[in-house]
Target: SDR family oxidoreductase
Amino acid sequence: MTTLVIGANGQIGRQFCELAETAALPIRAMIRDAGQRAWFDERGIDTVVADLEGELRHAFDGCDQVIFTAGSGPHTGPDKTLMIDLFGAIRAIDLACERGLSRFLMVSAMRAEDPLEAPEKLRPYMAAKYAADAHLRASAVPHVILKPGRLIDQPASQRVATSLTETGGENSVSRANVAYALRHLVQSRDLIGREYVLLDGERPIAEALC
Amino acid sequence: MTTLVIGANGQIGRQFCELAETAALPIRAMIRDAGQRAWFDERGIDTVVADLEGELRHAFDGCDQVIFTAGSGPHTGPDKTLMIDLFGAIRAIDLACERGLSRFLMVSAMRAEDPLEAPEKLRPYMAAKYAADAHLRASAVPHVILKPGRLIDQPASQRVATSLTETGGENSVSRANVAYALRHLVQSRDLIGREYVLLDGERPIAEALC
Model:
């Protein structure tokens, strides 16, 4: 019952991997090159070197679910948004289908369902997330889509909300809380076909994501 | 039985519109702003002002099929590839489904089915086309996907091929031949669920695309 973590070396990915390791959840951290391995080795986390723009198939061997939390990030251009956030996600979804995986946990973004409503600078990114989410919904793989708000660096409160109404319009969520939410989702194997907005809030994660 | 032409003001779009007008095929040319209207007015071609990144819905009124030949083109960046080639296509496909249109004719690109095999510079574009095509295939709207090779400016030979084997590896096709191919597809309403590579070649269009 190993979970492949795509985007393991990212900010959310690393925090999730540490939580999973501590909870003894079987995971495999997918990293792009062996130079990223030391951090994971030190923590006893299994890794596989694979590339969303290259050799990918072998990373899925022996895994039965996937977390996709890869993102090209703010330091690359929209060409990488197309190759990673969009096409990397599509490749991972198609492989998950082909292998008959039990679940695909997608880290998307709040308001990805309406890219034209986003601030102009964010629209191309939201368009990529929209298309990746749509591809997942149309696929045969059981899935959960998590839609965090604006990501911030704060310690985990482990208290969340799932709508702007609930937060009175506050739209941020700590990456640490996203990592805890992912740990909860990985453990809650009966959750399928769900989509959750995720914000910092007042409710325990297990109560909010059910 | 009006065909909405999305991307009408593009190089293929204009040539197709002229052919359709000459053949008395009912079309509506979708243009982004009224300043593009004169060229169409001079030729007696009906237009509608609509925007793939804005108000779009009204353009579909009274139409029963769609040609999507819009492209952000080589003079804009991959942010526009995301907004036009990917998300604009997705919006048009979703509207075509919602309206129950009889067909969606997509102008894609040869090898869009394998973006990682394209030269590196073209990969983000091919990823967008891959995702748009996949969205169309997964949709409920009957469709045809046309995949031209490398586009060149030559007069229409009206002779085409549908594989590199057939051309001995020659990978180009004139925009004029693509326009003629679209005219043929618009008239051939029984063609559904087909995908064709399109190259300059030796066969009459009606024989190659059947």
